[in-house]
Write a structure and sequence with these properties.
Elements: E1 15-17, H1 47-71, E2 78-80, E3 86-88, H2 89-105, E4 111-112, H3 118-121, H4 126-134, H5 145-154, E5 161-166, E6 168-176, H6 178-183, E7 190-197, E8 200-208, H7 213-221, E9 235-240, E10 244-249, E11 263-264, E12 277-279, E13 296-298, E14 308-311, H8 320-326, E15 332-333, H9 340-347, H10 356-364
Parallel strand pairs: 4-6, 12-14, 12-15, 13-14
Antiparallel strand pairs: 1-5, 2-3, 6-7, 7-8, 8-9, 9-10, 10-11
Length: 373
């Protein structure tokens, strides 16, 4: 049985109405000079934007690691929003950091993000957010309570509305998988930033501070890859339209020449359903999927028999599901929406931060994303 070839998803042509223009203007501010990519600048139209995005996502990941090291020693650093979703200083800190840095470099490009400052203003933790942002910002003296709150609101839900013309904008999920962030070291979470230009996702950067490449190699294949340079070091995954998807370990970002450490990502080349490696959300059992009527799911690759498929035992409630597929660790990720409302959200603009970066990373790695409404 051949795998179905699904059509690629073009990101919705979101329209934003802003008090300023949204075309990309020349940028003369520099990012880290050692940053380089394994493809020529002439081939990548948005090379400078990608440089800036990788730089700020790397720093945002380190901000998360810093906050996480304090998270479990101080209960006040774990908060509950009105919808009962755990949210931490890191969520607000990452959004403020990315907003500040990208607004400095590309002031004409608006930001669409998840958080706004209303909840933070009701707590006594604004100062703590300022501290973690200042520690990672380019210009620490410019990081104040006022600038941080304004930076958060620049990407907040009430900061934009829809207009008649196609827009250029950044899409940010400060921490996708916040529940995993507050659980412990094994649960995966992702910092995600993408650029959308007139309805097309043109670049994406994902950072997963606790990605363990050795774990995924062993649990998927049962053997250890030789020459593995990513073990227990986190991962940065980047994608640019027409230039492929690439990864490198987070711990190398400041220590080695980056053009020599990037590894190209390719989706799994499997074309036969029974040989594919599947990945599903923790919240959904294999029995809830239509394929369960034909195949049993096993998590041990050595015990796969006729009528069985391999289910990768990984936490994939966050954007790491796209990392799993883009890096070839999983052949297919399945998500079954329980209501039509959920599917409309996924295929529309509302939760853009949940999918934009993942879509381009999978597509540029040779895969496809299919959403059926």
């Amino acid at each position: 049985m051949d795998l179905l070839r699904c059509s690629a998803v073009r990101f919705p042509r979101t329209h934003l109405r802003r008090p300023f223009r949204t075309e990309i203007r020349p940028c003369f501010a520099a990012v880290r000079s050692s940053l380089s990519f394994p493809f020529p600048e002439q081939k990548a139209k948005y090379y400078r934007e990608l440089e800036a995005a990788v730089d700020v996502v790397e720093r945002a990941c380190r901000l998360c690691v810093d906050v996480k090291s304090l998270l479990f020693s101080n209960d006040d650093r774990i908060l509950e929003k009105n919808d009962q979703t755990p949210v931490t200083i890191a969520d607000f800190g990452v959004q403020a950091l990315v907003s500040l840095e990208m607004n400095r470099l590309f002031p004409s490009i608006p930001l669409v993000a998840e958080e706004d400052s209303s909840f933070l203003r009701s707590t006594n933790l604004v100062g703590a957010v300022v501290d973690v942002v200042a520690n990672k910002a380019t210009f620490r003296d410019e990081v104040t309570e006022d600038s941080v709150l304004k930076a958060i609101d620049r990407g907040g839900k009430d900061a934009y509305n829809f207009g008649p013309n196609p827009a250029t904008y950044w899409v940010l999920d400060p921490i996708d998988g916040t529940r995993g962030f507050v659980k412990g070291v094994e649960a995966l979470y992702v910092v995600a930033l993408a650029l959308v230009v007139e309805g097309q996702i043109v670049l994406g950067v994902m950072g997963c501070p606790n990605w363990d490449e050795d774990y995924f190699v062993n649990c998927v294949t049962g053997v250890q890859e030789t020459g593995n340079n990513f073990s227990r070091s986190g991962m940065i995954m980047v994608s640019h339209v027409g230039c492929g998807t690439w990864k490198q370990r987070l711990s190398d970002m400041l220590t080695i020449e980056l053009s020599q450490s990037w590894t190209r990502c390719s989706v799994d080349g499997c074309q036969v359903l029974k040989e594919a490696r599947f990945c599903t959300p923790e919240s959904q059992k294999w029995e809830s999927f239509p394929l369960s009527s034909s195949f049993n799911a096993k998590t041990d690759s050595e015990k796969i028999g006729n009528g069985d498929i391999l289910l990768v035992p990984a936490c994939c409630g966050s954007l790491c599901k796209y990392m799993m597929v883009a890096s070839g660790r999983a052949s297919v990720f399945l998500l079954r929406a329980t209501t039509r409302k959920v599917m409309k959200k996924i295929s529309g603009y509302a939760p853009a931060w949940d999918h934009a970066v993942g879509i381009i990373c999978v597509h540029e790695a040779g895969g496809k994303v299919h959403i059926k409404v």
